[in-house]
Design a protein that fits this description.
It contains 7 helices and 7 strands, in the order E-H-E-H-E-H-E-H-H-E-H-E-E-H. Strands 1-2-3-4-5 form a 5-stranded parallel beta sheet. Strand 1, helix 1 and strand 2 form a beta-alpha-beta unit. Helix 3 packs parallel to helix 5.
C-alpha cells in the first residue's frame, strides 16, 4: 500500500503508479487532490494497481460522486468526516450498491465495529493512538481486531490515564 496523500499531478500519479506496479504494491492511495473525481477516474483507468481514495469524503455525497465517476477501485472512509455512524452506514450502502470495497481511515476503535456492518468491508486501518487513554486497547489476533463485547462503541476511557494528561 502506497499513500501519496494528494501530493501528485495526474501525470505524475500515472508515471509513479506504473513503476510501483512492478513492485507488486496492493493499492495506490490518494495520489491526487481528493475532490478531483474525473481526474482520479482517468488515473484509475491508466493503472493496473487499484486506486484507493476517500479518507477526505465530507459526507456520503462525496462517495456517491466518486462512485458515479468511477474515481477509484476502493474507498477508505473516515468516520469523523463521513458523518459519524449514520454517514458511515449511508456510505456503506453506496459502496455496496456500486460494488466497491470499503476500508476505514483511522479511529479503529469505532471503525472496527462499523466495518462489521459494511457489506463490502475490506481493510481496517489500525493505529494504536487511543491505547494511551482507553481502559481496554483493541486486541489484535492473527491480523484481525477482536471487537469489544461492551455495548455501544465498546470504548471505556481510563480515567487515571486521562487525569495524568491534565498535568501535561
Amino acid at each position: 500500500m502506497v499513500d501519496y496523500n494528494q501530493a501528485l499531478t495526474s501525470t505524475e500519479a500515472i508515471l509513479r503508479g506504473r513503476e510501483l506496479e512492478k513492485e507488486g504494491i496492493y493499492w495506490l492511495e490518494e495520489p491526487i487532490a481528493h475532490e478531483e473525481f474525473e481526474a482520479s477516474a482517468a488515473v484509475a483507468r491508466e493503472l493496473k494497481v487499484p486506486l484507493q481514495i476517500g479518507e477526505n469524503f465530507n459526507g456520503p455525497e462525496g462517495l456517491l460522486r466518486a462512485a458515479i465517476a468511477r474515481a477509484s477501485d476502493y474507498v477508505m472512509v473516515d468516520v469523523a468526516r463521513i458523518g459519524g455512524v449514520t454517514g458511515w452506514l449511508q456510505a456503506a450502502g453506496i459502496a455496496a450498491a456500486h460494488d466497491i470495497e470499503m476500508s476505514s481511515h483511522l479511529m479503529p476503535e469505532i471503525s472496527a465495529h462499523l466495518l462489521c456492518a459494511t457489506p463490502t468491508a475490506h481493510w481496517l486501518e489500525y493505529v494504536d493512538w487511543a491505547d494511551a487513554i482507553v481502559l481496554e486497547p483493541l486486541i489484535i489476533r492473527d491480523g484481525m481486531v477482536l471487537t469489544s463485547e461492551r455495548t455501544g462503541s465498546g470504548i471505556a476511557w481510563d480515567e487515571a490515564k486521562l487525569k495524568r494528561l491534565e498535568t501535561i
